[in-house]
Amino acid sequence: MSIDKLSHYSVRTLDLEATRQFYTEVMGFSVGPRPPFKFPGLWLYRGSHDSYDNAIVHIVGIDPHDPQGLKDYLGDRATSTLTGGTGTFDHIAFAATGLGDMLDRLRKKNIEYRERAVPDLGLHQVFLDDPSGVVIELNYPANEKAAA
Q: Of 7, 73, 97, 124, most Cβ neighbours within 10 A?
């Protein structure tokens, strides 16, 4: 058995619109096809929408007035856990290029971020938080920092 790659990650949110805006306007993903589940949500893509396999982020909307569809599909999970952080899940990381463009975008959107250099790996990292408290790590080639 082998595990080859990350397929996608899911974020449960009480604010579907703020989460959509973050992932489309900040991260540059686009909304694409999603199966007709009985709960609100969005699937976000980078590039082609020709296959459900290309979705990178699944946004799971929580409707506190009608949670049954979500409970039936993903199981019961208290919405109160969303206000206390992400639990044992800490962050998701992406390999990226275009550091200067991303930093400009973050500044224009007033998104707080943290930068780090990784010794011996030639990486420059940018960390930011999505509206649900998920930490996003973006790994850029270190030489892009000088150009940014």
A: 124
